Amino acid sequence: MDMKIQTNTLRIDGKRLWNSLMELGQIGATAKGGVCRLALTDLDKQGRDLVSSWAKAEGMSVVVDQIGNIFMRRPGRNNDLPPVMTGSHIDTQPTGGKFDGNYGVLSGIEVVRTLNRHNIRTEAPIEVAVWTNEEGSRFVPVMMGSGVFCGAFTLEHAYNATDADGKKVKDELARIGYIGEQKCGDHPIGAYYEAHIEQGPVLENADTVIGVVPAVLGLSWYDCTVTGFESHAGPTPMAIRKDALQVSTYIMQETVAIANRYPPYGRGTVGSVQVMPNSRNVIPGQVKFSIDLRNVSDELLDRMHQDMLAFIEETRQRTGLKIELERVSYYPPCPFHPDCVGNVRAAAGALGYKTMDVVSGAGHDAIYTARLAPSGMIFVPCKDGVSHNEIEDAKPEHLEAGCNVLLQAMLASAGVVND
Questions:
Q1: Please, which pLDDT band fits residue 9 given cuts at 50, 70 and 90?
Q2: CA-atom Rg of the chain in angstroms
Q3: N or C end: fewer C-beta atoms under 10 angstroms in the chain?
């Protein structure tokens, strides 16, 4: 089979992909049509076992590393070459859906099934990865498996993470039988592609099938504590109050204002607020809240950070209240490799799909693989932009289109053997 015929005619089986997604979605299925399959639970084991069995049925070898990442390999003609990898995760939020993460893994399985059905050999091996605890809904940090794999944090740190019941990652990995022998990171990657639902409304609103992802937004997370003085809401005159909540609202509004000053990718969110003593007729004495700032470049994110510091200092001087701001997490913006982005763009164009660039506002395992190898992502629309929700949904034809793009992009990186 020559390259031209292959790239022009080869397509995945959309119905087979859909049926696999629906079958995996039954493990941990919820009454509202979603999935609750938390990392390293018995349900996670069932999901891992099912996906691994599908890979083995396609003749793939299966290797598990020490943090439980699963690597399923289809050999190439030259197995000394680093594999061209795809994948994502199959753990979910407590009220998750059938597609977040799962689509990326099962798209990879469908790519292999398609290559097998058409007897197509690749020069480099093809691999599908299942990364451990991407969601972080049971154990922190998020993107744990890929993070350990790329050296963002240590295996020991991950092993010692506990859930709400005090159960450790290492113990739970052992319990479900997914502590592998391969040392984390001792697994080369030639290129990495991740197919994913967008988890936002941009593609659907633009009536576009494929999102080409040039980058993922960086983020700065902060904890802010404003300390005032508690007193009675009735007898205390307005002029002498030290109202921690009112001062906090200035900072909360500025969080949004800062984001609006740095469009189109500036983001500013206050998502968690604790008011003490949280009583109807007591002026709040202390407020603790989160701040989430995001943007597409280090420069822009740093300018937003400096704006926040300046506003905090001005507010501190103006009000006389104690204001503490601690940056608790920082993920730098992640530009994806031009070769991978170009392969996705070229594949979508050749297949005739309408495309647009979509910078991801959410974190993905591809952020960490990008530290080790050329990486890229493919987005498809999801209904109303809803994700991390049991009603998460996507059209079969969009999922099929994204998987077709994934197939062609991976072949561009892996090379096709023309016997």
A1: confident
A2: 24
A3: C
